[in-house]
Backbone:
């Protein structure tokens, strides 16, 4: 555990990618393979199943520290992270009895201590944990608490872990990325598999790494001849990979989460595909049964988070899979084929299917000006813009710039007034960075949405100071502030919802700019916001 | 019975002695005739009073910051001076050079206003002195139990390790710290370490740091030798050095001279990970010139105060905690801590 704590600190103590890479490769070189497998598991964002209740954890921290509950609450407010709060609050290790010599390896900690802990009665859990805390340094305690309570979040991306592994094994990052996909058990065998690609039974459900598009910032004409590019609508749904191998079916989200059982109609439709097929596409919700269904994120919303949708929901909120790429056919990886060829085979494959399995149409246009005109129809179609994909390109891994671009339309905007603020979490834990905005209805400001991002650090600090000095009322961590500051809020879609008083939900609301030139009276009227929602629905 | 010290619009005031302690003159009301200044940080030593009284160390800092003509008289530590019906004396607060607690007594009752203080060992200023009192006016900057300071020498030693690590990887090392107190404390610790081992390179200073470091040297505080950054032309030498700079230099064009570098920040706030990450520093070093949680509690116990007034920082926490332990405690709403980050 000391070695892993050391790794955590090194990763945490630098903002430079090279330092992190060096820390990772040093660790991989020294750690036993089973430890390394667990480290890769946690650093790639995976976590243990929930072992303990947060409320219990707090109670044990109070027992071990002797402080009243309100002190823990105040401390948590200043720190913003329960794992760290507890690690810092408990008394320092008593070093008079010599250094702690019980240094189990990471694997031992996880497999022999933490996982069994989840099965113990609460009383035993508390006793064990308090004993462990007492022998640990604050840093070790912090890492232990982190492992028990959720993701590590130490500023390491999956891509960086992949790079470190590739460097360690002296192989291609794309191979490592492929081997790390899907569900796997963090074992010494798995770590060996990462190096060699064999030794483990083939994982039939494993997806391919998703290829991600970069936002188009230049004018499209800089991409060259429009005829070298394939344009498609940029759908607003759930990006997903569907797999059919040896009679089994798997659906994966882009966050590498299995979506099995959530979309039974798509799973049923997958039966039409031959074994050894993997498709990339988008799960879409749609409204009505007009000749051309209108796909919207709002229509998909009730299906998100429902692990086993009821018959009623299936009926009222149907979904479809809009396929746009072919990754495997006849059990053969075809990602290296040029897009034009993959597209041709995909079209052939889907020519005979029906129902919930659709082929994402190509937007045909002769030149960039025709495509520009087509993009203007995005709002009416309920899509976010266009995707531009180079016809000669292979299907890449992760975010590689150059051959896939997303060419989104401008967001909707409203000017809204800051009404409430609360502290962020993690690195923003003691700054007020979560804002609630309102618009006018009959001379009153009603809450429209929350937004977390879009201001720069100087603006955040300025606003934070102002909030602290101008609090009208506190509701727990939330502060009500006077209606003074107006912000331009951008968002991608809007639909009726009871989430906020104004009666709408916004998709991806964020602050575009601080409108210091506007007074609260200049902010939007709710009727005008409602008009936007109306336009979005038409 | 009236209080020996009361709060007015312009600060902590002693009606019997007709003086203020660390006032914030507002320009609207008659200016304070006399301001007794606990220490030289800008939120305590403010312009706008007619006359000032401070320790020689604080007076020197005030002259450096506010102008050579600032009307300040000096009073040495532990020397009593009478104002009306009260005796006033200054006692080391251990915060920065010249920092003092102000003791005010009318023979029946004794009040101590601490300004900012700390109990940790610090070779750059006189150590805190416990002054028995009835009412103690305290800071509460770090009044949460998570704030417990490691030994300053160990912190500066880990700083040295970090510097060496950067050297091995050919990266410049820039350490951000406040120009009054923290920079000098780091230099004093480095001076002590240099007695037993060789430091890996020069210690360089941002231009904004030199003036107050010279004040410390004038007061015979032993600091590691320093060179202004601007005096170093040799790029290699620059990259091998440890450069001290005020936090305001972070992200400025001034930083360009260093090329690839790693940044560190020395402050008590670095005890919390989010504070460091939000500011974007690579490394945080936990070193503070303020009292940590144990020091706040110990001090209140040792000076025997029956009443505690907390002026700035986490005052709510300290006040509630003390009250639950039977100490008469309250908040005193001052404007300390507003301008100078600790």
Residues:
């Amino acid at each position: 555990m000391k070695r892993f704590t050391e790794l955590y600190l090194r990763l945490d103590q630098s903002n430079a990618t090279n330092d992190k890479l060096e820390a990772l490769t040093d660790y991989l070189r020294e750690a036993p393979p089973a430890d390394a497998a667990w480290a890769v598991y946690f650093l790639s964002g995976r976590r243990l199943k929930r072992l303990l209740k947060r409320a219990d954890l707090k109670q044990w921290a109070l027992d071990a520290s002797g402080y009243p509950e309100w002190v823990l609450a105040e401390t948590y407010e200043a720190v913003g992270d329960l794992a760290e709060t507890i690690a810092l609050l408990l008394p320092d290790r008593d070093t008079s009895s010599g250094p702690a010599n019980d240094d189990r390896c990471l694997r031992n900690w996880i497999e022999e201590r933490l996982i069994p802990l989840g099965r113990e009665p609460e009383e035993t859990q508390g006793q064990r944990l308090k004993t462990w805390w007492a022998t640990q340094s604050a840093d070790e305690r912090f890492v232990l608490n982190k492992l028990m309570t959720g993701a590590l979040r130490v500023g390491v991306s999956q891509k960086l872990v992949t790079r470190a592994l590739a460097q360690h094994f002296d192989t291609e990052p794309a191979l490592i990325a492929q081997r790390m996909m899907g569900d796997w058990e963090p074992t010494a065998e798995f770590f060996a598999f990462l190096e060699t690609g064999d030794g483990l039974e083939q994982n039939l459900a494993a997806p391919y790494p998703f290829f991600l598009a970069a936002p188009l910032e230049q004018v499209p004409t800089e991409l060259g001849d429009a005829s070298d590019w394939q344009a498609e609508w940029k759908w607003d749904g759930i990006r997903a990979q569907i797999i059919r191998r040896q009679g089994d079916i798997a659906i994966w989200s882009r966050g590498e989460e299995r979506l099995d059982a959530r979309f039974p109609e798509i799973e049923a439709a997958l039966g039409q595909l031959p074994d050894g097929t993997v498709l990339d596409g988008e799960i879409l919700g749609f409204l009505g049964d007009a000749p051309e269904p209108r796909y919207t994120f709002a229509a998909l919303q009730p299906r998100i988070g429902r692990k086993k949708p009821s018959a009623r929901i299936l009926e009222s909120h149907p979904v479809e899979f809009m396929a746009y790429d072919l990754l495997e056919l006849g059990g053969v990886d075809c990602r290296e084929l040029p897009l034009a060829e993959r597209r041709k085979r995909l079209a052939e494959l889907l020519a005979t299917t029906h129902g919930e399995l659709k082929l994402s149409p190509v937007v045909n246009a002769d030149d960039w000006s025709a495509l520009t005109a087509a993009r203007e129809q995005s709002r009416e179609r309920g899509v976010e813009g266009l995707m531009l994909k180079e016809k000669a390109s292979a299907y890449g891994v992760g975010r590689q710039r150059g051959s896939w671009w997303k060419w989104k339309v401008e967001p909707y905007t409203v000017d809204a007034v800051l009404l409430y603020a609360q502290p962020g979490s993690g690195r923003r834990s003691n700054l007020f960075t979560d804002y609630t905005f309102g618009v006018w209805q009959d001379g009153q400001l009603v809450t429209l949405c929350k937004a977390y991002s879009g201001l720069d650090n100087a603006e955040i600090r300025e606003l934070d100071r102002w909030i602290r000095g101008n609090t009208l009322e506190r509701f727990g961590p939330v502060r009500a502030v006077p209606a003074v500051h107006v912000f331009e809020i951008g968002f991608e879609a809007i639909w009726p919802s009871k989430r906020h008083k104004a009666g709408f939900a916004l998709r991806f609301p964020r602050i575009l700019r601080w409108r210091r030139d506007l007074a609260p009276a200049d902010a939007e009227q709710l009727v005008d916001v409602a008009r936007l929602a109306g336009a979005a629905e038409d | 019975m009236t209080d020996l010290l009361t709060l007015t619009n312009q600060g902590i005031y002693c009606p019997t002695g007709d003086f203020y302690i660390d006032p914030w003159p507002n320009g609207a009301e008659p200016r304070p005739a006399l301001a007794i200044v606990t220490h030289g940080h800008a939120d305590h030593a403010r312009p706008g009073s007619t006359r000032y009284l401070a320790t020689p160390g604080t007076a020197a800092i005030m002259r450096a910051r506010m102008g050579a003509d600032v009307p300040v008289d000096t009073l040495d530590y532990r020397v009593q001076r009478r104002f009306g019906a009260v005796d006033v004396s200054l006692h080391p607060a251990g915060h920065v050079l010249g920092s003092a607690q102000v003791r005010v007594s009318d023979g029946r009752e004794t009040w101590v206003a601490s300004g900012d203080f700390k109990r940790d060992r610090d070779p750059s200023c006189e150590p805190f002195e416990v002054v028995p009192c009835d009412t103690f006016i305290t800071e509460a900057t770090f009044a949460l139990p998570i704030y417990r300071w490691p030994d300053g020498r160990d912190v500066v030693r880990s700083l040295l390790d970090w510097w060496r690590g950067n050297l091995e990887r050919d990266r410049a090392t820039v350490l951000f710290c406040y120009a009054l107190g923290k920079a000098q404390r780091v230099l004093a610790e480095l001076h002590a370490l240099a007695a037993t081992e060789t430091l890996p390179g020069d210690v360089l200073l941002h231009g904004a740091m030199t003036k107050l470091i010279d004040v410390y040297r004038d007061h015979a505080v032993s600091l590691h030798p320093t060179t202004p950054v601007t005096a170093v032309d040799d790029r290699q030498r620059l990259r091998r050095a440890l450069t001290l700079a005020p936090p305001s230099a972070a992200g400025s064009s001034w930083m360009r001279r260093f090329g690839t570098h790693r940044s560190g920040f020395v402050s008590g706030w670095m005890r919390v990970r989010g504070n460091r990450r939000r500011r974007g520093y690579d490394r945080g070093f936990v070193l503070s010139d303020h009292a940590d949680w144990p020091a706040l509690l110990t001090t209140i116990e040792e000076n025997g105060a029956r009443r505690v007034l907390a002026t700035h920082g986490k005052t709510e926490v300290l006040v509630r905690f003390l009250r639950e332990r039977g100490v008469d405690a309250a908040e005193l709403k001052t404007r300390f801590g507003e301008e100078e980050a600790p």
Notes: The radius of gyration of chain A is 26 Å. Chain A has a mean pLDDT of 90. The first helix of chain A runs from residue 2 to 12. The CA atoms of residues 241 and 280 of chain A lie 5 Å apart.
